[in-house]
Amino acid sequence: MINKKGEMRSSITLNKLLICITILVATLLFSYTHSADAQATDTVLSLSVYLPGIGNSGDVLNATNTTLNTQKPTNTDKTVNIYIYNAANQLAATKTGTISFEGASGNFLGQIKIGATLNGAYVIKIQIPGYLKKRVPGSYRLVPGATVQMQPLTMIAGDFNGDNATNILDFNFLKGCYKDFLAPSFCDADKTAIADITGDGKVNILDYNLFIREIAVHTGD
Ligand SMILES: [Ca+2]
Ligand SMILES: [Ca+2]
Fold first, then answer.
1. How far apart, in whole angstroms, are the C-alpha atoms of residue 50 and residue 108?
2. How many Å apart are CA 217 and CA 155, to the nearest integer?
3. Sorting pLDDT into bands at 50, 70 and 90, what band is 181?
């Protein structure tokens, strides 16, 4: 038997439950709307990157001849680190994304979302493991929600240890992964992926030859 106090208590509990559900639904709706807005206003950088020795790219000493290039690289995806500088040449933002090989054009393409906080003129530099950091030619007006097409960029291979210079340390890195008749002396899968600048899955005389051509440039941007 339920008395009036019991009915009142049940009614209050039910009201509290309804209030809690209403708050929960409102919170979920707000967070969904907020998240959808954030995605809609992302600035997107559209990258077009040529990697020496692969696809349709030239190299430092050989700008146009692509006959010896690997046309079907083993690793079709490359990690790209993006550095965005403001008009005062201060680093305003960094972002990491992926670019993927496009066989038809022979280069790597990628649409990288960089958030919605930048608004103005910026200089963009990109770095890929195994390559010197390089400035994308020109400067770019970034606006939230816009997709900005970057000028095509040819990277310089050979910075295997990632210190933005090419020198004897990179030569030693390459030598450690070099495999011809003998096993590599000091290497692993990650290092092989970086030292294999011709993109054919092996580190050998072809990578060495390309490294020698590329080290005419010693430092990155
Ligand atoms: Ca280096
Ligand atoms: Ca190779």
1. 6
2. 11
3. confident
CATH 2.60.40.4130 fits 44-214, yes or no: yes
Q: How confident is the model at residue 217 (pLDDT cuts 50, 70, 90)?
A: confident
Ligand with minimal distance to 194 CA: 2
198 CA → ligand 2 middle, Å: 4
- Contact between 58 and 64 under an 8 Å Cβ cutoff? The reply is yes
**In angstroms, what is the span from residue 201 Cα to ligand 1's centroid?**
21
CA of 43 to the centre of ligand 1 (A): 31
DSSP state string for 140-161 = EEE-TT-EEEPPPEE--EEETT
Judged by its nearest atom, the ligand closest to the C-alpha of residue 133 is: 1
pTM of the model: 0.80
Ligand lying nearest the CA atom of residue 193: 2
pLDDT in tens, 84-117: 999 999 999 999 999 999 999 999 999 999 999 9
206 residue type, one letter: L
Mean model confidence pLDDT for the chain: 88
Distance 132 CA to ligand 1 centre (A): 8
Nearest ligand, CA 53: 2
